[in-house]
Q: What sequence folds into this?
């Protein structure tokens, strides 16, 4: 999911005139930084993405530093969320920021306490699956209990995009990827793109949730 246009709940829903927007060109310096950051993110095939992360038990300076590193990387990669497993750290830690004006939130040991039966399907991308976009159905509302990186209790009542990105990242902590939610057809197409590289994507990637 891109930080550029996630202010609304629209995640390029299917069927609105098939308006596959071209990714706006970044200036070369920013594009180089984005690529550099993406090169630090584990991609499909890496065992870290299929493993279940472990509960954090020590809330120390190391954890605060870990969160700071992840935050930097997520911003540089222009994602709106990042899970520790995506950088090869097997801790139950995730971060997200749902828009340029939204605060960056770090979440440790998240537990999905409740989610609504109301759900919505929308396109998602993943920093770990370059070029892949699939439809994923997620609950519209969710309540997550967790801790901050300092060990304080935290309760998140999330809706829409925030609920979606939280679900995406919690999935990462359990070794689940968006292609695991995709239809058989979309999954097959995604695996082709992963095999052949992002340039093999048939349509230019629209600006969708990438996390
Ligand atoms: Zn992801």
A:
């Amino acid at each position: 999911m891109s930080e550029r246009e996630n202010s609304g709940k629209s995640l390029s829903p299917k069927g609105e005139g098939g308006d596959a927007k071209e990714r706006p060109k970044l200036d070369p310096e920013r594009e180089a930084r984005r690529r550099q950051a993406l090169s630090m993110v584990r991609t499909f095939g890496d065992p870290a993405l299929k493993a279940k992360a472990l509960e954090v038990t020590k809330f120390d300076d190391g954890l605060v530093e870990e969160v700071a590193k992840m935050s930097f990387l997520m911003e540089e990669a222009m994602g709106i969320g990042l899970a520790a497993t995506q950088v090869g750290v097997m801790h139950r830690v995730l971060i997200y920021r749902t828009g340029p004006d939204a605060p960056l939130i770090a979440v440790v040991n998240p537990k999905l306490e409740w989610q609504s039966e109301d759900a919505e399907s929308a396109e998602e991308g993943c920093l770990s699956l370059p070029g892949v976009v699939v439809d994923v159905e997620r609950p519209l509302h969710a309540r997550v209990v967790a801790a901050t990186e300092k060990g304080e209790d935290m309760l998140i009542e999330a809706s829409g995009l925030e609920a979606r990105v939280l679900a995406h990242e919690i999935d990462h902590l359990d070794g689940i990827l968006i292609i695991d939610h995709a239809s058989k057809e979309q999954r097959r197409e995604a695996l082709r793109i992963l095999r052949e590289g992002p340039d093999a994507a048939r349509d230019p990637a629209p600006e969708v949730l990438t996390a």
Residues 94 and 193 are 26 Å apart (CA to CA). Residues 2-20 have pLDDT under 50 and may be disordered. The chain has one domain: 28-210. DSSP finds four helices and eight strands in the chain.
